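Title: Prediction job returns without error message
Component: structure pipeline
Severity: low
Priority: P3
Assignee: unassigned

Description:
Job completed but the reporter wants confirmation the result is attached to the right record. Sequence as submitted:
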Amino acid sequence: MQPGSAQVAAGYIMYGPSTMLVCAAGRGVDAFTLEPTIGEFIRSHEKIQIPSRGHIYSVNEARAPVWQPGILRFVDYLRAPDRATGRPYTARYVGSMVADLHRTLLEGGVFLYPAEAGEDGKSSGKLRLQYEAAPMAFVVEQAGGKASTGSERILDIHPTSPHQRVPVMIGSRDDVALAEEFVAGRH
């Protein structure tokens, strides 16, 4: 098994009112929308760039009782009004990593699936490194964003098992860097 940095391409497909294919192959991120009248995908977004800072955060706040203190402080910070820093951020959580991250990719902000304290007292993430976190990290980094576990870059992690789980903080570069500061206790 190899770290996510060895990926050469990644992407996702979203189904809804329109069908969209978003892909990155080492030279940025493009999106293609299915044109149903001709049955073909047409490039609808070229060289997507995620804003360096957003105004939306996406996390399942029902899980807050099992979050680490740094994540609790970070989410509280995002909710606190402060015009100088563009807060409060708006909470938007669909419950689908692809849908939530797609919005984050286009509008900026941060998607969180933080480590949770288990019944055994150990903290662990929920999303699978190899086929959830790393591919989405590749896409977001190709668009100028950042993807972290809170303490390390997701694409630098050497997998120890095919279904290894990791915490995820992914989105706008400045927002993810700030989340890391909170997790490390430096903010």
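Comment from assignee: result matches the submitted record. The chain has a mean pLDDT of 95.
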